[in-house]
Amino acid sequence: xxxxxxxxxxxxxxxxxxxxxxxxxxxxxxxxxxxxxxxxxxxxxxxxxxxxxxxxxxxxxxxxxxxxxxxxxxxxxxxxxxxxxxxxxxxxxxxxxxxxxxxxxxxxxxxxxxxxxxxxxxxxxxxxxxxxxxxxxxxxxxxxxxxxxxxxxxxxxxxxxxxxxxxxxxxxxxxxxxxxxxxxxxxxxxxxxxxxxxxxxxxxxxxxxxxxxxxxxxxxxxxxxxxxxxxxxxxxxxxxxxxxxxx
Length: 247
Ligand code: HEM
Description:
With about 250 residues, this protein is mainly alpha-helical. It has helices at about 30-45, 45-50, 70-90, 90-95, 100-125, 130-155, 160-175, 175-190, 195-200, 205-240.
């Protein structure tokens, strides 16, 4: 017998983004610290670039290409928008109570993020004034972010929401790399400074450069590893709660 139009077979993908019962904000206590952390990071990182004057840049700027600084500014202002959008995207209350807002801010995340953050990052990364290691690391970081973000979008379009969520969490982990970098720089400085004399011969600039290279890589690799661990942990605990019945 042919299935009636209302029959939902096992292979039929859900038409709508799966929503669950709204979760009160106090059951997800991390959303407030995440929002505060994001705003604090932006208030510290973005103001030097609001003057649009290369002399105020915190980053050592390469002499060429001439478009490096405009591209960096585009990247930073786009990055500020994306940092705020991530908070909206991962907020369970908003996702469940206002799925349309989640969908629209997700579209803005992808379609402003690729041209304003991903492509400028890819263009400026090979010219980083902070050396070859940063050039390689930043290029890989930008490539991975662009790939994860596009994969997340494609999965949502195909209604494969579990995969959409996994790819988007990886994308968010990489977006937070820059904010995590600020924290990691301080932590690594504290860890490494007792070795200032023995390893860097008392040269504080050499210590700063070493720490900068290490934090440049670790600041996006560690959040990504954390997300991978969390996704595995969540899958395992779901399997344990709902074991597949054996035939
Ligand atoms: C996957 C995401 C991101 C990638 C791949 C990326 C990549 C880059 C690259 C390649 C540079 C130039 C570094 C250099 O020349 O040494 C840079 C600088 C910068 N980016 Fe991003 N970025 C990302 C996300 C963000 C976000 C979300 C913000 C938020 C505002 C941001 C703000 C900045 C700032 C302020 C700088 C100037 C240097 C500094 O003050 O640390 N980036 N980024």
